[in-house]
Amino acid sequence: MAHPALTAQGALPVHLRRLLEFSAPASGDLCLDVAGGGEELAGALRERVRRVVTADAPGDACVLPYAERSFSLVTCRPSLRSLGEPAAVVRELLRVCAPDGRVVLAELVRGDLTATGHAAPGSSVTELTGLIASAGGTIGRVDAFTAERPLDPWLAASDTPDADRIRRTLLREVDGGRVTGARPRVIGGELWFTQSWAHVAIRPS
């Protein structure tokens, strides 16, 4: 039997399924999906909105090639830090968002694995909301949660040269080794780990 994290909305991982529902896409929305990689969310959004434009722009989301107020829904994932200077990225997302639209951020607050297999801390929810306010956004809803995900697909998407080292480290923890913060466990013969996410809905001030 498939793990619950992969059974709804096709094969969407649980954090993307939850982001899809949190974003509350409407049939009339013109959506911009800014991502560091991966088309899963954009594909699901296309089934619910009028049109989706994707911007796969790691390190270059501080200057988006779109006019002001172009989109009624802007989604951004998985990390502001991977897309440029975080405050500048937030300001740019707000710039292309319509006054009555919303920007939805998905940010890892813990669970981005380092080369040693340890879970690196990200911005806390408090730090993230402070950053948004300083960038001129008005915060609406916030959803903070943890999600388990299979390790191997994450490693493949990350394209990290340290995949074998990370896998060995987490397997050692499962066998009683040093605690990494990733909370690994084996599910159906696969190695899984845990991430902590924050979803924040904001609008231009």
UniProtKB/TrEMBL annotation:
<dbReference type="GO" id="GO:0008757">
    <property type="term" value="F:S-adenosylmethionine-dependent methyltransferase activity"/>
</dbReference>
<protein>
    <submittedName>
        <fullName>Methyltransferase domain-containing protein</fullName>
    </submittedName>
</protein>
<keyword id="KW-0808">Transferase</keyword>
<dbReference type="Pfam" id="PF08241">
    <property type="entry name" value="Methyltransf_11"/>
</dbReference>
<dbReference type="GO" id="GO:0032259">
    <property type="term" value="P:methylation"/>
</dbReference>
<dbReference type="InterPro" id="IPR013216">
    <property type="entry name" value="Methyltransf_11"/>
</dbReference>
<keyword id="KW-0489">Methyltransferase</keyword>
<feature type="domain" description="Methyltransferase type 11">
    <location>
        <begin position="57"/>
        <end position="105"/>
    </location>
</feature>
<dbReference type="InterPro" id="IPR029063">
    <property type="entry name" value="SAM-dependent_MTases_sf"/>
</dbReference>
